[in-house]
Design brief:
This protein has helices at about 20-30, 45-50, 70-75, 90-100, 110-120, 125-135, 140-150, 155-160, 165-180, 185-195; strands at about 30-35, 60-65, 80-85. By secondary structure, the chain is mainly α. The chain folds into two domains: about 5-105, Response regulator (Rossmann fold, 3-Layer(aba) Sandwich), CATH 3.40.50; about 120-195, Winged helix-like DNA-binding domain superfamily/Winged helix DNA-binding domain (Arc Repressor Mutant, subunit A, Orthogonal Bundle). Strand 1, helix 2 and strand 2 form a beta-alpha-beta unit. Helix 1 (about 20-30) runs parallel beside helix 2 (about 45-50) and helix 8 packs across helix 9. The chain is globular, with a radius of gyration of 17 Å. The chain starts with 17 loop residues before the first helix and ends in a 5-residue tail after the last helix.
């Protein structure tokens, strides 16, 4: 009902469980999917896993209670474009769908901090890999990567680093490749693992 109230959003399907969700995604090819972590028959993590790999897949927004859900980190590492807390106001849900459809990723600064904290201390292999990846960045790319890790959106980064939003987007695009990341959440994880976040 929330999404149907926005004339720019077309709801093409609604699934009762993960199995039906995968069937509908294959048949309807939506641009964005709101995916609950906890679903009957097939949970959200398994849906993400089954949709991974080569080929085009929709952008996925995970719905979670977060504080009670220990699986959110795995979901984000599996390539989810972001996540929403289940008590997000209706306008926030609509805004998230628009942003993710446009190629952005949803990272609330307050939730990003909690997410990074939940990751805990990275193991040595992750630290080494993150340090090696970060070493390939230019100074400017490193600044943008840290800002992304702090949960800032492109407009904020542009204002703080005195560059255009288009330039920030170009930097983020390069960061995805250099840091072997699928989305902004994974950039934040690499930056955290490399010890660049205070």
């Amino acid at each position: 009902m929330i999404l149907r109230d926005d004339p720019a959003i077309e709801v093409v399907g609604e699934a009762a469980d993960g199995v039906q969700g995968i069937e509908l995604i294959a048949r309807l090819a939506p641009d964005v999917v709101l995916l609950d972590i906890r679903m009957p028959r097939l949970d959200g993590l398994e849906v993400l896993a089954r949709l991974a790999g080569p080929g085009v897949r929709p952008k996925m927004i995970v719905l979670t209670t977060f504080d009670a859900d220990d699986y959110v980190v795995r979901a984000l590492r599996s390539g989810a474009s972001g996540f929403l807390l289940k008590h997000t106001p209706p306008a926030g849900i609509v805004d998230a769908v628009h942003k993710v459809a446009a190629g952005d990723h949803m990272l609330s600064p307050s939730v990003t901090t909690q997410l990074i904290t939940r990751l805990g201390a990275p193991d040595s292999d992750r630290v080494v890999a993150a340090l090696a990846a970060v070493a390939t960045l230019t100074d400017r790319e490193r600044e943008v990567a840290v800002a992304v890790g702090e949960g800032k959106v492109n407009a904020q980064i542009a204002e703080e680093l005195f560059m255009s939003v288009a330039t920030v987007k170009a930097h983020v695009s390069r960061l995805l490749g250099k840091l072997d990341a699928d989305n902004r959440v994974q950039i934040a994880i690499r930056v955290h693992d490399a010890g660049l976040l205070t």
